[in-house]
Specification:
It is a single chain. With about 400 residues, the protein is of the alpha+beta class. Helices cover about 40% and strands about 15% of the residues. The strands form two sheets. The chain has a six-stranded antiparallel β-barrel with strand order 5-6-9-8-7-10. The N and C termini lie far apart (about 60 Å).
Length: about 400
């Protein structure tokens, strides 16, 4: 059972924010790894990197890892261990792997990326052309950021916990020692449980129906996308199916990225990278909400997600501007994505969400909406006077290299 807590990480993050450290992702990562090593020595556990789960599982499997099928490189080749008391490890075969991937009951679990690559190679050597397609399936899954059909254990653990200094991300033996499990198939299943379940105090905190919304919603999209990859792409070979496969794999990466960016413990990291932006000084101007955006900012006009404490809501960043007096980047938020009505102003539901953004007592963050969720990103540049009741924002004078990179510029 997962007994890890998110609170120690919250405490470290609070101290980090108040210490005036170098505002770079590199320094932040080094600091958190050192803090995780210290916590491991003093408290017997590494620090959680995510409050939510760092790995996905199928709806028919348990998040405690009991249904996982570990795969590793042994003296006799690429080995796997099926769940069940007293079942010995066996060499992996294409037919076994196909059964596991087609089943809603089991989750394939290479211990490391190297083990996943070895599994793909072992299956490719199978003489049956039909079974060789299983190798293609494994190859697609192992290249995904996250998968609900195949969990790469070391990668999931490295997403869930801050890897202590002097420990390699792919050292499963070190992870077993850090989390107090045995270094064998049963212990690896326990490690999977740590990666696939949220911190226990995260579960206690998120008790309302909006809790873990992004994990549930985007996790379902990822699972549905993986099913389409298996049925629509891997059973047919064509340029169209290859392009569709690339698009779907990109969608998986985008949606799991959104799960990470909306995780409370990772928001400080993504604020430094600009992939999450804080919105302060929020106020109504006409039918829109205007707020000052933190920098750096990689958020562009289009669909965004707004993080209001435990809730994640859909917004549209309709416009960007610059206040020369305060030297502040401004964002203008209009209708929400799923409740907008064509040719009309904001619906009642949209206005309620915008009101929540203005009145929220804590900090409000925004991040890019994942590709393929609620429509494609807008190409809106600057609002014309007839599109909004507020005065148009002054265009920004951008250097050529910045403009080429995609920043909005004036006419």
């Amino acid at each position: 059972m997962n007994t890890t807590s998110a609170q120690p990480t919250r405490d470290v993050l609070a101290a980090y924010r108040g210490a005036g450290h170098d505002p770079s992702t590199r320094h932040f990562t080094a600091h958190m790894r050192a803090a995780s090593a210290s916590h491991l020595v003093n408290r017997g556990r590494p620090l959680r990197r995510m409050a939510g789960p760092g790995g996905l599982h199928r709806s028919g499997t348990e998040p405690d890892g009991r249904n996982t099928v570990p795969v590793w490189i042994g003296k006799e080749g690429t080995m796997l261990s099926m769940p069940g008391e007293g079942l010995p490890p066996v060499r992996a075969t294409a037919s076994q792997v196909r059964t596991i991937l087609d089943s809603a009951q089991y989750l394939l679990m290479p211990l490391t990326p190297r083990a996943a690559s070895a599994l793909e190679s072992a299956i490719e050597r199978d003489g049956d052309p039909e079974l060789r397609k299983v190798a293609q399936h494994v190859g697609v899954l192992r290249r995904m950021t996250a998968s609900s059909k195949m969990l790469v254990l070391s990668a999931a653990l490295s997403r869930t916990f801050w890897t202590p200094v002097e420990q390699e991300n792919d050292d499963v033996t070190a992870w077993a020692a850090a989390l107090g499990t045995s270094d064998d198939p049963d212990g690896w299943r326990e490690l999977a449980g740590h990666a696939m379940t949220p911190a226990h105090d995260y579960q206690a905190k998120h008790t309302d129906e909006s809790g873990m919304a992004s994990v549930r919603e985007y996790g379902k999209i990822i699972r549905d996308t993986e099913d389409r990859i298996a049925s629509d792409v891997l059973r047919r070979r064509s340029a169209t199916s290859a392009a569709t496969g690339f698009e779907m794999a990109t969608s998986v990466e985008e949606h799991f990225g959104a799960i990470c960016r909306t995780d409370e413990l990772l928001i400080p990291f993504y604020l430094l990278s600009g992939e999450v932006v804080e919105v302060s000084g929020r106020r109504w101007e006409g039918g829109s909400v205007v707020g000052a955006l933190s920098t750096p900012s990689k958020v562009r006009t289009g669909d965004v997600l707004a993080i209001l404490g435990r809730r994640v809501v859909d917004l549209r960043l309709a416009d960007l501007g610059y206040d020369e007096q305060s030297e502040t980047l401004l964002g203008v938020f209009g209708r929400t994505i799923r409740t907008q009505e064509k040719g009309r102003g904001p619906s009642a539901a949209a206005l309620a969400v915008l009101s929540d953004v203005v009145e929220h007592s804590g900090p409000v963050y925004i991040t890019i909406s994942p590709f393929g969720s609620f429509g494609t990103a807008s190409t809106v540049k600057w609002s014309r006077a007839d599109e909004t009741s507020m005065d148009p924002l002054a265009p920004i004078s951008m250097p050529l290299d910045v403009a080429v990179a995609g920043a909005p510029v004036g006419d």
